[in-house]
Design a protein that fits this description.
- With 105 residues, the protein is α+β, with helices and mostly antiparallel strands.
- It has one domain: Alpha-Beta Plaits (2-Layer Sandwich), CATH 3.30.70.
- It has a four-stranded antiparallel sheet with strand order 2-3-1-4.
- Strand 2 and strand 3 form a beta hairpin.
Length: 105
Amino acid sequence: MPRYFFVVRAAVADPGKRAAFDAWYAREHLPDAVKTFGAEKAWRYWSVTDPALHQAVYQFPDKAALDRATEGQEMKRLVADFNRDWPDITRTREVLVLAEEFGAA
């Protein structure tokens, strides 16, 4: 069964806010989101190409698990918490399905 990924891309335009955003995401938001979603794993990335871009990726075993995680009331709470703490940071969300995995394990 293919794995599914929920990707949240945030644009932290103000360089002065990036360290605080990074700390908040690491200490508060990522652990809360992983627990709330029931995600198998999660990763966070800062773009080297564009230092304003932050991505969080959450892995799910199937589409049904991803849908349960992202379509309920708890998702609305996570969004509200983010908006409360970071009202000026825009985000996009995307759902991906693993098409292929290649290489050594």
